[in-house]
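[step 3/7] fold_predict: job queued, chain A
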Amino acid sequence: MLSRRNFIKINGVTTAGLSLGIRPDWFTTMAFESKRPPVNARKFTSQAVEATIKNVKAAIKDPELAWLFENCYPNTLDTTVNYSVKNGRPDTFVITGDINAMWMRDSSAQVWPYLPLIKENVKLKDFVKGVINRQAACVLVDPYANAFNAGPTGSEWDSDRTAMKPELHERKWEVDSLCYPVRLAYNYWKISGDSSFFDETWQMAGKLIVATFKEQQRKNGQGPYHFQRRTEVASDTAPNGGYGNPVKPVGLICSIFRPSDDATIFPFLVPSNYFAVISLNQMSEMYRVIGKDTATADVCKALADEVNGALQKYATAQHPLFGKVLAYEVDGYGNQSFMDDANVPSLLALPYLDALPQNNEIYQNTRRMVLSDANPYFFKGKAAEGIGGPHVGLNYIWPMSIIMRALTSSDKNEITKCLHWLKSTHAGTGFMHESFNKDDANDFTRKWFAWANTLFGELIIKVHKYHPEIL
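[step 4/7] structure written:
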């Protein structure tokens, strides 16, 4: 089974450095043939998605960009899903791509760009509801796990020193793994008006999410979760007996791993705590309005307010170059880490998650910091510039960070520049990747990474809606 650290090197023509609309003669004359699977080999099809592809593609003047959109936007549906009906309920298992397992984060993010279409397509609506149902069941299996198998098959990580179960692919505790399912369920409800997912199973899962968040505030000891792995990669295991570096209980929630699946340095991961505030407020509304459960709604709201208050007190600092900014990680003792990682939640992505307004002064200061050499994981090279992270290593830019930069920008020049980088670094594959070398886009990791593909599709749709002249 492939590791998320698997590298693929492609020998081919480097496309970096070419402007958005210009290619050498040999390139502009080649046919951009679809990279999608044949229709009868696609995992799931939706008329609404196909209509969107046709409509948006027709508005894109650049044939290569149109080709990339056509390949990437439906990639999750085409290649990664298994939809069925179990006991009269939709059930959807979504793999991340080249790893045959379902990440709570990835699966939510992979289907997110299709949410706006669920009102006009019952089949797609049931498909998304199936993801929500599956995720609730996963939370009840183990709220601390980040990735699950389709069944109780075990995984290559069964030897990890933690409470593994055969249903788990991996058991890295990441706060965002419990936030993403809430985001998906809440927005499904708001868009479709369908609250039937909020059944006894989901309500039990939601209460377990709140209990887990409280447990990981570590006000009453370290809690039950610990994780160690035999590895030469320091960020693949947790120090201090698997409990992570120490924290002072101040109201924030510990995340022993980042959304990159890398260990945190200081366990209070700031972007994930901002995400938790949003999720707790969304759960509060669902319990109050749908469930008529005022007591649980009040518990969710109180915890959201507590975490938010602690963020205001402990997550900011005065940077010598950028003014008041957000740290990436803190520990409650006063220690802070100033960086950003490409994976979402990130500091860059806070407006995308509705955690902070795009024009917020602290966010803008932080944005300038993480998109500069003040961020140790910001790389600028011959192929592009963008944020990476320790998961792949130095000098590797994640297309996801370039996409997120464009999604959180209102500057048409910046968006255009991001589209140029994305267009010129797919290494002839027609898809986004996990990462690529800042100086050579043909040196990349993960040829099949569905989250990055559908996120790119989401970006094109947003640009088509708000800045069609760019396309």
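[step 5/7] annotate
The longest strand covers residues 81-86.
The radius of gyration is 21 Å.
exit 0
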